[in-house]
Structures are given as C-alpha cells and as structure tokens.
C-alpha cells in the first residue's frame, strides 16, 4: 500500500479503513505463523526504514520521491520508480511467496515485479473509480481516466481478486470484465476485543464530558464530500426546524480530519454549520486513536455513515460492535455492514429531509434504539478479523497451488 502508510492515523489525510484493514489482517495472519512485510512509500521522517510491529509483521519504507508534499493524485508519476525500489527490496532479503497489493496504485507498482519474479499477485481494490464515478457527491471531481485504466490493468494481471462484498465482486465482473473465477469475497472485520460495549454509554459520556441526557449523533471519518458529512449537517438543520423540541438536548459530533490535499473541506463544513445557524448543535473533533474511538461510539445514540459509495464501511461495524445503531446510506458494502431494521437503518439517497426524518424518528423512539443496539452487537459479532485472515490465506493457498500445478504441467 504505497499511497498511505499503515503507521498513519486513520481519519486524516489519505489514511482510512484500508490502513486498518491491512494492519488488522496482517496481525491475524502473523498470529497464525505467517511472516508479513508491509511495503509503503516513505512520506515522513518519523520512522526508520524498517519498523518491526512484532509478531512477525514489519513495515518497510520505500524511499522514492520527495518525502513531503506528494499528493495521492501525483503518485502515478512515481509508479515506475516505486516498482524498481519494490523489486530491489524483494530480491535483497527474504523470499516471498505471495504479493498482495491494496488499492490500484499499489497494484500498478506490484504488477511488473510479480511478473518479473514469478510471484503470484493477489489484489484488493477497496474502492473503484467506475463505482465512485457512478455516485459522485454534488460538485465532486470524477476519478481520472488514468485510475480507471490502471484498475483495469491490475484486474487483468492479478492471479486473484478479493472483493469485500458480493456487490463489489459483481462490479469487478460487470465494470472491469474480471473473470468470475478469479474473484473471491472476503468480508473485512472488526476488532471485537477493542470495540465492545465496555462499561456502557453512561461511563463513556462521563469520560468524554458529554451530558448524560444528550441525544448524541456521531460521524467518524475523513472530511470529504464523498463521505457525506454535508448530508448529515443539512439533515440536522432540517431536524431542528421541524422538530424544535429535540434541539435543547441534540448534539452532533463530526470526528475526523481533512482528506488528502483538500484541507479546505473542514473549514467549508464549519462555515456551513455557522450559516445554517446550528453551531450550538454541531461540533467538530480531530481524528481519534483507535482505542479512544470506542468511547465515542459507545457514548453515541446513533452513528451516521452518509457516504455516496463504500466498498464496505468499517466505521459502521465498529460502532455496532460497541452497541450503537448505525444510520447509513443504502450503497455498496454498507448493505452488508448494516442489517437494515435489525442493527440500524439504511437510507435510500442523500436527501437531507429524508435523513432528518429517519434520525428524528429514531431519537424519539428509545425503545427501538435499544432493540437495534442488541441487533447491532449480534450482527457485528460475525465479522472478526480472524475470519478475514483465514479467508485471505485460503486464497493465497489457491493461487500457490494453481502456480505449482501449472509449473508441473509445463515440465
């Protein structure tokens, strides 16, 4: 994963669910005796070239391009140089059995190396340009053609493709002409020892200094149009207009930082809150570390995920594991991450009035929230990272067996 580091704080810059996915699945594989090296481009000088995370997992930095100031959009120019550095790294030490790339830029870096060294290539997209471009937020810039073409090339070159959900697998086949036999579905997971009900909502609110009787709605993620924070903000403005009785206790928390190079989006959201006259209701908090995040989920009455598309939606699973119902867009992987009517509510479209109606109804029905909370805990319990790693290792076995058979037939 070259465009973001597993050592970065999720929820800011380009660091998000993929960082968590890679680290958690690597740790689970290591627990089963597999050595895992995670290669990433150096984007700061805070760490040595090799960071040993323990248990057989290492993060290895590729020193390519300027350390600072390279945006994700500028990375494609560095792909040839990154491939060369990656190949040198792979041939100067341990022997690797499988290369697993995450996101299209890493796939493009890995493709020629896997081919030259005759190592099977497994790829996970996480998000896809053609899927995103079918559901853009208002004013959002479409993903560029270089990404669309790059993804198509990675799909054609990979020995196996891992999709997060059946819907994503279908998109790989229909939008990228992937061979169905090469596509497997392995759902991401949630850290079930970290994200728990714990000591409950009251204790978490006390820890975070929230009023015990507040009606708390929380958004967690990078502040970018595609994640939909504006939808939530506008729906809150609608809510205080049509249900003014909720306002005295209503609190909405936006937890996250600017996405990529777009630092102005946080300021734009704050200005929108002020313009809508809801500064007393909507508040912003910087990105929170993994362990601290569980308290925010537990303290909340509802967690909102109003994204325009999601390959899965780890925030939704984490919140549910903490016993908090989720209100999410009925798109992509969120249809799997949230059990509609059981662990939360899926909302069609992105009309703030529709979102406002759903949120207000849930806030006014505490008994229904209790039932959804119970369903949320049960639903999340089926998505441990150990299952993700086992499914991934099964795919590694399949590609290695196929290569061995192919080699035997040729000889």
Automatic annotation (TrEMBL):
GO terms for molecular function: acetylglucosaminyltransferase activity; D-inositol-3-phosphate glycosyltransferase activity; metal ion binding. Signal peptide: none annotated. GO terms for biological process: mycothiol biosynthetic process. It holds the Pfam family Glyco_trans_4_4. Its EC number is 2.4.1.250. It catalyses: 1D-myo-inositol 3-phosphate + UDP-N-acetyl-alpha-D-glucosamine = 1D-myo-inositol 2-acetamido-2-deoxy-alpha-D-glucopyranoside 3-phosphate + UDP + H(+). Keywords: Magnesium, Metal-binding. Residues 16-189 form the Glycosyltransferase subfamily 4-like N-terminal domain. Residues 203-370 form the Glycosyl transferase family domain. InterPro entries: Glyco_trans_1, Glyco_trans_4-like_N, Glycosyltransferase_grp1, Mycothiol_biosynthesis_MshA. It is an enzyme of class 2 (transferase). Belongs to the glycosyltransferase group 1 family. MshA subfamily. NCBIfam families: mycothiol_MshA. This is D-inositol-3-phosphate glycosyltransferase.
